[in-house]
Amino acid sequence: MSDRSRDRKVRGSQIRSSRDEKQQETQGTQLGSGDTHQTTRASTNISDKFVPDEQPFIETDAVNRVKERLERWMSVDRPVHIIGPTGCGKTALAIQTARGRDRPVVWINGDADLTTSDLVGEYGEKERISERDKYIHNVVKSKDIIRDRWVDNPLTLAVREGATLVYNEFSRTKPVANNVLLSVFEEGVLELPGKRGDSRYVDVHPEFRAILTSNSVEYAGVHEPQDALLDRLVGIHMDFYDHETEAAIVRANTDKADTDQVNQTVTLMRLLRDRLDINVGTRAAIMAVEGAGPAETLDEPTFTDICVDVLASKVSSRDGIAELREDVGATIEEATMSFLADRPA
Prior knowledge:
The protein has helices at about 5-30, 60-75, 90-100, 115-120, 155-160, 180-185, 225-230, 245-255, 260-275, 280-290, 300-310, 320-335; strands at about 30, 40, 80-85, 105-110, 120-135, 140-150, 165-170, 190, 200-205, 210-215, 235, 295-300, 340. The chain is α/β, with parallel strands linked by helices and about 350 residues long. A 5-stranded parallel beta sheet has the order 4-7-10-3-11, with helices on both faces.
């Protein structure tokens, strides 16, 4: 039996040389003199369909502190894992930072059914090749060859083209599917399981970067990633932003919303966050302000209905809804919402 580990060591040195050459080529596209330079962005085969549409993004001191930490690690080619509760702004921060690199952005959304093939690709098409032999007079020979054709999936495209990968909710994917990331982050090579021949290995582009987001492990449906992968990631734990930042986010995502109403709705949701056993994210405040918009009369019962509706999907029983309504009503009374009043017809 041959020693496969020896073969891999030889290939590893070849990969590192290839990455050095690519890095030199990338640096060779930088133009200018002195301390200033301009980088020519390389063309890629990545479509904009691989990333969600751009959303409003608010930058306050609190947001910029986290963003600077993320950018610092990306500048030294370290993959970053952002961990935090649902609705605290992980995904928005990841996408905004990725777009700021002026490189293509590739999006993957993790779930329990995602497989390694969904990440890297598979033989998904048939290719027909026809050959015709007309060298003999009055005799035509023909031959059809049908072979499998490999189709790259998002991770392979990102690695090959030097994109910024945003892997959202990556810990919802079963750990075995994420094993392919180990060699990407450590050896700088992506192995394509199932692919045949020398093209089974893809050298990681020097401009490739990765941002992974996930909820804390206590959330339902979250798998604890393997230690070998976590050991290669930088972890940034996020929590909900301060009141000023949350209010700015809500104002940016709602049209014609009264400033006082936004501020007090954010105050209410922050109180409920501390009071309830369910997760109350910034998105809940956005939805509550949106729901209040069409209401002709925004009195306490109406606003209680709106808040209960926003949070009810996280409650699994009728008894839980009754408790939720009681808690929301009590919190509104404690917060003394001054904007609750009859609106003019």
